Amino acid sequence: MSIELQILGAADEVTGSCHLLTVGEYKVLLDCGLIQGSRKDEARNSAPFPFDPAAIDAVILSHAHIDHSGRLPLLVKQGFNGPIYTHKATTDLCKIMLRDSAFLQEKDARWENRKRERKGLKLVEPLYTLEDVEAVFELFQPLSYNERIEILPLVALRLQDAGHILGSAIVELWLHSGKQDRKLVFSGDLGRSGMPVLEDPAIIKQADMVLLESTYGDRLHRDWEATRQELADLFQEMTRRQGNILIPAFAVGRTQEILYLFAKYYDEWGLSRWHIFLDSPMAIEATDVYARNCELFDDESSQLWRENRVTPMLPNLRFTRTPEESMSINQIHSGAIIIAGSGMCNGGRIRHHLKHNAWRRDCHILISGFQARGTLGRTLVDGAKHIRLWGETIRVAAQVHTIGGLSAHADQAGLSHWYSQFENRPPVVLVHGEQEAKTTLAEHLRNTLSAPVRMPTYTETLSLTADDQAHKDAFK
């Protein structure tokens, strides 16, 4: 009886996580995420799955980010009806993120169909609808960390804290195939040690194969103390310039971390001088989920959040839920800190704020997370002098700052350290990274840890049941 792992997403890119595990007659899907980036990239979401959704016995979801969860409604729409195992906090966050995704899918379809009607073209259907999303929620099987359960006759599962966002999980799978037992460990998106709010990623010692993300496999982040000082210096500089500050932020994870840091360093960073806006209904809802799950935080962060359930963390923080409240911010030309989605600037309210501010020389744009190829955020990071928004060319005169030290992903050193804790150097499969990042990390792991590394291509299948030596030889 064979055990095989097929790579069906995030092979040479960061988004679209999806991997098919076959254990004898059983099929388990690890993640089912949206592909994000350019229009061409995102069009691939409509392509048929390279498997029969109805034949999948179970899904294991590492965390709520849409590039890991965003095609679950499509999977259910096309016939999947099994359990979806994930951390209990992830189920709460997915109810926010998937509903928002469906809203955007329906909105984009309506917008496209207006143009098609005028041209006499065939109308398009949204990728999925709110009704499809609600069907996903009925399948969730929420778990706690460190809870080992049998999910199928040949498969046992345990989730460990990945330290990336609330509820993010490292997936441990014990697989039985006749006389051969194998253990697969999937990192999901691995967080960073020593960062505010969340616990450090759990250390795992045993595996026969490790499926490892490589988002930042080619770089090192600034340490936290240097990042704190960088932000202090930036806020001092920006206070002198008296413009607005735009912070594109992922609604789940990055936004809550930023709010925590603003509360903790409120006086040191001179934040009382600013009007702070959280301009994202989804981020506002997600912040409430974080507050309800603060037992998952590290000790210092948990205490701060518990204390501030009664007392507001930031006295000058305003939640702007409605479109009208959001539009009113654009009347402010100086003294506003605007935190808005999307994190890669590919949609959401941040694009409106860029339209009204990016051309101002006294404006600052703080990029605090990974920007995938083809996104507007990546264009800004790469130094574009002009950007296009709703058919209009906007000059970029604002200062763009990339704050790599706020990243929620482990860097090369973090990924290497986490892998180094495994005994006997199991074969490691690198996914969820652009080609340069994966190649650099692979060379580093081989040179420093003598690790057997594989960088699979899309649809490539790997065996977990070959004998140990042959198995490792295949990774050289």
TrEMBL record:
It comes from Thiothrix litoralis. Residues 15-250 form the Metallo-beta-lactamase domain. PANTHER family: CLEAVAGE AND POLYADENYLATION SPECIFICITY FACTOR FAMILY MEMBER, INTEGRATOR COMPLEX SUBUNIT 11. The keyword Transferase does not apply. Keywords: Hydrolase. Residues 255-380 form the Beta-Casp domain. CDD domains: TTHA0252-CPSF-like_MBL-fold. Gene3D superfamilies: 3.40.50.10890, Ribonuclease Z/Hydroxyacylglutathione hydrolase-like (3.60.15.10). SMART domains: Beta-Casp, Lactamase_B. This is MBL fold metallo-hydrolase. It holds the Pfam family RMMBL.
